[in-house]
Amino acid sequence: MKESIVEGLKKIGLTEYEAKAYAALVGLGEATARDIHDASGVPRTRIYDILRDLTNKGFVEFVEGSPTYYRVVDPDLVMERIRDEFVEAIDKSKKELRNLNLEVYGSSPIWCVRSEWGIKNRIRDFLAKADTGKLTIFCRNPAFLREYRSDLKRRKATILVDDLSKFKGSGLELKEMKKHFAEQFNDTTVEGVTFRVDCILINTGKESLIISYMGGEKLAIIIKMPMISMIQESFLELSI
To answer: What is the CATH number of domain 110-238?
Structure first.
């Protein structure tokens, strides 16, 4: 049995044993619990419970007898039903979350995001909310400007880079930071851990977002402190 099939079924909510039993039954067409146990490797002590759970979830149907025979409900119909239920649940959750408003006291103005998906999502959200003409960026990574070029153009961002020669063909209007200022952003090693700044995004007078690496781990640091964003912007203005 292909591991990818089991992993795919687990992603739609089946346990590993359920996924193995269901995949085996799809291949068998119609079978007894013993046949499914032999084909799937699900322990005999668990197979009846697993088949009962699959029946309750609408994946399997059975014909009572001695022995009882099981067969799968048409997989296309099952997957279509799961997709519809999943989309409906997502839409409902989005609506309820938008209307959720809890009072939080003492919330930190500085947050850290680690996952690649979370970082990209935070960048997109930051750019979407940034005021047009009030977005300032310092960048050391050409790939960042390529990925978000259309958003940066739309927001009329002021973009500073450490070395213009690295950013040829970016399609953006760029300004080069003075060398002695740019050197302040060189990689730094402290107690054996290397720190690297890739990019700083500043929404003037509101917040800033720093994309960096710490010991090889990518981080996004969100700072919701207007005074800090103003100080950061002032530094960048002096650097050109």
So the answer is: 3.30.870.10
The 3-class secondary structure across 160-217, one letter per residue, is: EECCHHHHCCCCCCEEECCHHHHHHHCCEEECCEEEEEEEEEEECCCEEEEEEEECCE
Q: In one letter, which amino acid is 161?
A: V
> What is the distance between the alpha carbons of residues 189 and 196, in angstroms, rounded to a whole number?
9
- In this prediction the pTM is 0.61
Query: Which residue type sits at 127?
Result: L
Whole-number Å distance between alpha carbons of 103 and 129: 22
pLDDT in tens, 177-200: 988 888 888 888 988 899 999 999
Per-residue pLDDT tens for 74-97? 889 989 999 998 899 998 898 888
Strand partners, 161: 139, 176
Q: Say whether domain 3-74 belongs to CATH 3.30.230.10.
A: no
- Two structure tokens written together for 90: 């997502």
Given a contact cutoff of 8 angstroms between Cβ atoms, the answer to whether 54 and 22 are in contact is yes
Residue burial 219-235, b: 16+ Cβ < 10 Å; e: rest:
bbbbbbeeeebeebbee
All structural domains of the chain with their residue ranges? 3-74, 110-238
Same fold, 3-74 and 110-238: no
